[in-house]
């Protein structure tokens, strides 16, 4: 029997109408289920609060709304979909630790990671699949492995410092204005290449570098309207990531990083050095273990892309914000130099960096508290689920919140980490010594820093990142002083980046002087 031509003509329309009806039905059901949850009226019928959030100081409206509505509120995204914002400590513990695999990343976030990196550990969901990938990566990023990588951190730190000395020596004033965000990204890229893969990207040589520029350009243009539309819509239409110039940029960046990762993997197999303690050697050993589940080359390349990208964006942002805060406080710079000098250390070891430099540790913790690289921790309810709360939603007596299947929720890290009930009335002020005071008083809240998330899906590269930034700060603070002659503001990229107020892409020009 031959189908009527009209059948094929109507099939796309039926498909579209079905999905449209499903989308509208989900929105109406979610609105009804969350009708008792307070929140602002949408400022736009089409975009909800997306426009307001995107073009405002990152996180500012979350602070205002949580003060107004409490620890749980709802707001409207594009085309009317509902988003829950949660700072309730009991709910956060449940979502991130106790029931994390019931709250996967939203489909749009997973689509972003798949489009840019492949099916690596940031994309994968499900307990078994995630734990399998984590077992391959975790040993190379453990405390014992990072301990052996400290010399590499100093090598790349010294290389960056040498480039800055050249820039200063070209001036007659013993100082130079240096665009720090560019160098922070290149430091992060070279460090992960050398430490994780025994590969030298050589991006700190000072000249143009295609990979560094491609990775930076992928997210460092978020002031553009096209980036807003993509960010607003990918939550509900993930396929938008493949459209237009932005989609082409995503594909180009993924291919460039993938080509390099494939070559690194082939070179490593030829060299056959599985006795080292870096990530590449760990993967080689896993590959040689016949009893282990083997990953194909696409999976291996995805893991390598993921490792490089995860070490590039957040670390470069942490470095930039650390140097910015130091540039605002000459006294703090001097105190850090005195602490390092008094410790009588050469290049501090792992134990020195973690145990013998408390002010340095406090500075970095305070940077992470006030400038978390990832502003929002996003999840989605895989099924309709009841989440425990530490206190009822205002106007109710219920200490549980039923979240409908498919609802997107976000944990605003900046709100949690500037809660005056935890941090005091100066919670929004950069004051590293609060950490020394808290330690002396024996104060440790259950959740001090969420910048690396927590629970089974917390960042496995946390120790690696903290130690490489500390090694860099030690190297730079010994040789340079910093000052900031511009007004700097945060802006929303993939991570929260600094920029000169009112400008477009990331920018942090500091006056760097040899001492």
Report on this structure.
GO terms for molecular function: heme binding; iron ion binding; monooxygenase activity; oxidoreductase activity, acting on paired donors, with incorporation or reduction of molecular oxygen. Heme binds at residue 459. Belongs to the cytochrome P450 family. Pathway: Secondary metabolite biosynthesis; terpenoid biosynthesis. With 515 residues, the chain is an alpha+beta fold. The chain is 53% helix and 10% strand. It contains 20 helices and 11 strands. The chain has helices spanning 5-33, 50-54, 60-69, 89-98, 107-116, 127-137, 143-169, 180-197, 210-219, 225-233, 244-271, 279-288, 297-327, 330-342, 350-356, 358-370, 413-416, 420-423, 433-440, 462-479, and strands at residues 72-76, 82-86, 175-179, 376-380, 385-388, 400-403, 408-412, 480-483, 488-492, 496-500, 509-514. Strand 9 and strand 10 form a beta hairpin. Helix 7 (143-169) packs antiparallel against helix 8 (180-197) and helix 13 (297-327) packs across helix 16. It starts with a helix and ends with a strand. 42% of the residues are buried. The mean pLDDT is 90.
Concise account of the structure shown:
Helices cover 53% and strands 10% of the residues. The chain has 515 residues and is of the alpha+beta class.
């Amino acid at each position: 029997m031959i189908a009527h031509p009209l059948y094929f003509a109507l099939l796309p329309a039926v498909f579209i109408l079905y999905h449209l009806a499903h989308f509208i039905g989900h929105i109406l059901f979610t609105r009804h289920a969350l009708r008792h949850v307070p929140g602002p009226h949408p400022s736009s019928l089409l975009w909800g609060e997306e426009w307001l959030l995107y073009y405002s100081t990152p996180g500012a409206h979350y602070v205002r709304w949580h003060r107004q509505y409490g620890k749980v509120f709802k707001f409207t995204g594009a085309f009317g979909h509902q988003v829950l914002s949660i700072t309730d400590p009991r709910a956060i513990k449940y979502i991130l630790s106790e029931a994390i695999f019931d709250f996967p990343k939203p489909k749009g976030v997973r689509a972003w990671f798949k489009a840019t990196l492949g099916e690596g550990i940031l994309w994968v969901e499900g307990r078994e699949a995630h734990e399998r990938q984590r077992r391959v990566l975790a040993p190379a990023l453990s405390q014992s492995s990072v301990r052996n990588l400290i010399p590499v951190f100093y090598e790349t730190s010294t290389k960056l410092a040498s480039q800055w000395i050249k820039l200063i020596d070209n001036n007659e004033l013993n100082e130079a204005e240096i665009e720090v965000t560019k160098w922070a990204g290149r430091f992060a890229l070279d460090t992960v290449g050398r430490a994780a893969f025994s590969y030298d990207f050589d991006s700190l040589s000072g000249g143009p570098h295609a990979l560094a520029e491609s990775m930076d350009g992928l997210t460092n243009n978020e002031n553009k309207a096209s980036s807003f539309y993509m960010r607003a819509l990918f939550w509900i239409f993930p396929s938008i990531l493949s459209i237009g110039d932005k989609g082409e940029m995503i594909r180009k960046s993924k291919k460039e990083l993938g080509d390099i990762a494939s070559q690194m993997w082939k070179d490593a197999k030829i060299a056959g050095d599985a006795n080292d303690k870096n990530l590449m050697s760990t993967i080689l050993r896993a590959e040689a273990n016949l009893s282990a589940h083997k990953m194909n080359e696409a999976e291996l390349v995805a893991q390598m892309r993921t490792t490089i990208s995860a070490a590039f964006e957040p670390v470069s942002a942490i470095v930039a914000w650390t140097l910015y805060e130091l540039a605002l406080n000459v006294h703090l710079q001097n105190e850090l130099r005195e602490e390092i000098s008094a410790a009588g250390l050469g290049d501090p070891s792992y134990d020195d960096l973690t145990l013998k430099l408390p002010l340095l540790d406090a500075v970095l913790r305070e940077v992470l508290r006030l400038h978390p690289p990832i502003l929002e921790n996003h999840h989605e309810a895989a099924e309709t689920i009841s989440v425990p709360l530490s206190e009822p939603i205002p106007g109710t007596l219920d200490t549980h919140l039923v979240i409908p299947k498919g609802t997107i929720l976000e944990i605003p890290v900046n709100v949690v980490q500037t809660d005056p009930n935890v941090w005091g009335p100066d919670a929004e002020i950069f004051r590293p010594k609060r950490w020394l005071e808290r330690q002396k008083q024996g104060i440790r809240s259950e959740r001090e820093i969420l910048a690396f998330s927590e629970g089974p899906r917390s960042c496995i590269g946390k120790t690696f990142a903290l130690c490489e930034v500390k090694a860099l700060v030690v190297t730079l603070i010994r040789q340079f002083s910093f000052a900031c002659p511009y007004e700097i503001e945060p802006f929303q990229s993939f991570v929260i980046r600094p920029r000169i107020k009112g400008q477009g892409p990331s920018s942090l020009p500091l006056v760097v002087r040899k001492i």
